[in-house]
């Protein structure tokens, strides 16, 4: 977040619910793919969590343009999810809408079961759903907040991956969404940053575990991206300057991140596993 000298690049706005609704944002995030498809995911089936909006929506539409059928997992933002499903169908592909909480293991088992039932197989899993709740001091983080943040951001990744494993064959891909905060931290997002650091370790460990099975596991660590999570997290004045302190002096758009997920999901990255891509507007981070 920037100080008082930061440039205002978005209209001030905020939302009072997590993880936020894209229908209430202005301007709307740019999620449509920039280029024609080339069949990179032709014949594939993908599950995308947090698929209703933001990075998840951009991934869903891009994957569909590249030939994949898509199962869209979302918490409660039905209007956003329907818009995403319509965009997927406009690309000529199936969109399966699955509403529920990824922090619930039974729901995650059902997500995979319904995807197999409707689509017949599973080739790509994109673990992307997340929530964040800023607090000024670690003592302000309640046990309930800590549990919920880890339940959504980390446990959900484990649950869905566990459910998917019996169906993933050699050549399958798992792509996890972590964050720049895993590398540089975030003083007001202690629990969120901790989950994102854990996702990096999860990605690297799982990649080693699954290498001999021919299943690749990688991650994407976005910087400040214009998604519903931003007005649902920060006060209006902070939203107005969101992204302005990056080297590129702006927030990124979801369609500038989804291309990273696509690359890691498809065979163009066939010699990459356990790696993290960093679409963050030019910020240099270690690791």
Folded structure, characterized:
The chain has a domain at 30-219: Rossmann fold. The protein is of the alpha/beta class. The longest helix is centred in the middle third of the chain and has 22 residues, at 143-164. The protein is built from 8 helices and 7 strands. Helices cover 35% and strands 11% of the residues. Helix 1 crosses helix 8 (258-265), helix 3 runs parallel beside helix 4 (143-164) and helix 4 runs parallel beside helix 6. Strands 3-2-1-4-5-6-7 form a 7-stranded parallel beta sheet, with helices on both faces. This is SDR family oxidoreductase.
Key descriptive features of the protein:
7-stranded parallel sheet; Rossmann fold; alpha/beta; 7 strands; Sc_DH/Rdtase_CS; SDR_fam
The side-by-side strand order for the widest beta sheet comes to 3-2-1-4-5-6-7
Give the fraction of residues assigned to helices: 25-40%
Average residue pLDDT = 92
Question: What Rg is obtained from the alpha carbons, in whole angstroms?
Answer: 18 Å
Helix/strand layout:
Layout: E1 45-49, H1 54-65, E2 69-74, H2 78-90, E3 95-99, H3 105-119, E4 124-127, H4 143-164, E5 173-177, H5 181-184, H6 190-210, E6 216-220, H7 236-240, H8 258-265, E7 276-277
Parallel strand pairs: 1-2, 1-4, 2-3, 4-5, 5-6, 6-7
Brief overview, please?
InterPro entries: NAD(P)-bd_dom_sf (IPR036291), Sc_DH/Rdtase_CS (IPR020904), SDR_fam (IPR002347). It is built from eight helices and seven strands, in the order βαβαβαβαβααβααβ. With 287 residues, the protein is of the alpha/beta class.
